[in-house]
Amino acid sequence: MSRDLPSLNALRAFEAAAQLESVSQAAEQLNVTHGAVSRQIRTLEEELGVSLFEKVGRGVQLTPAGRRLRDASREAFDGLRSACAEIRQAQAHAPFLLACPGSLLARWFIPRLDRLNSELPGLNLHLSASEGEMDPRKPGVSATLLFAEPPWPADMQVYELAKERIGPVFSPRYAGAAALLDQPADKLFTEALLHTHSREQAWPDWAQACGLDPAELHQGQGFEHLYYLLEAALAGLGVAIAPQQLVADDIAAGRLLAPWGFVGTSNCLTLWTSARASQTQSARLAEWLRVNLQTDAG
């Protein structure tokens, strides 16, 4: 037995006309012309090989075949409407899973999580720490927060939140802290600098932006991820290089020092989501992030 169905548009036009018993009212409900509904019904009748309406005076009424199809189409479309409504409702209450690097999650996001939940109570935000290559297209991930640089992929919606600024930081507990304070930036040439393998170019990029020769820098202890690098700096193990957003709270609390400030890079803190997904929640989160990042920077 064939499982082929007639055109869904034709069935929808017929269902509306059959329920309202009026082609004109069906056209108004569907926001199309009277002629468009009539053509869809004729197409359906030709495909089925039977008349669905018959003229009675100046109006129309359903034939026996039309009544049978009306009942079946009403049940089918009511089921579809109900299923779509349930899916929309479930989606509205589904968790918004945000993936971001562990360092960003721990040092910027979590300290502001109460504020976000208070100001965006309907978001139902869930957070997931990710390291290395983070693909925002992964199943189940609503959006990804990460430092990146353009060009942006065509199949993603990318919200630019704040330009990245990086700079050297160290703890007041670091044994060489006193010797570095009030010194020019090239004093770092005498230091074995802490660095992260996930961002090998950070120190050279900073040096070039400051007019220094990157070849004069000496790499010391390396760490797999930025989070571990910052923990090492906080423990007083040496001078690290870090994005301003991730150390702003530590600097404000006096846990880290940044005597040479921060310089801009080509990277940007961005929120990525699939271009096919609904952007309502992502746009709300992006605006909240943008505002709070500007507040912290200002």
TrEMBL record:
What UniProt keywords apply to this chain's record, in alphabetical order?
Answer: Amino-acid biosynthesis, Aromatic amino acid biosynthesis, DNA-binding, Repressor, Transcription, Transcription regulation, Tryptophan biosynthesis
According to the UniProt entry, its GO molecular function terms are: DNA-binding transcription factor activity; sequence-specific DNA binding
Pfam families listed in its UniProt record: HTH_1, LysR_substrate
Enumerate the PROSITE patterns for this protein.
HTH_LYSR
User: Locate the HTH lysR-type domain: which residues?
Assistant: 6-63
Q: Do you know which InterPro entries this protein is assigned to? A: LysR-type_TF_proteobact-type, LysR_HTH_N, LysR_subst-bd, WH-like_DNA-bd_sf, WH_DNA-bd_sf
Q: Which organism is it from?
A: Halopseudomonas laoshanensis
Note whether Lipoprotein occurs among the keywords: no
Please list the GO biological process terms of this entry: DNA-templated transcription; L-tryptophan biosynthetic process; positive regulation of biosynthetic process
What is this protein called in UniProt? HTH-type transcriptional regulator TrpI
Domain of life here? Bacteria
Q: Which family does it belong to?
A: Belongs to the LysR transcriptional regulatory family.
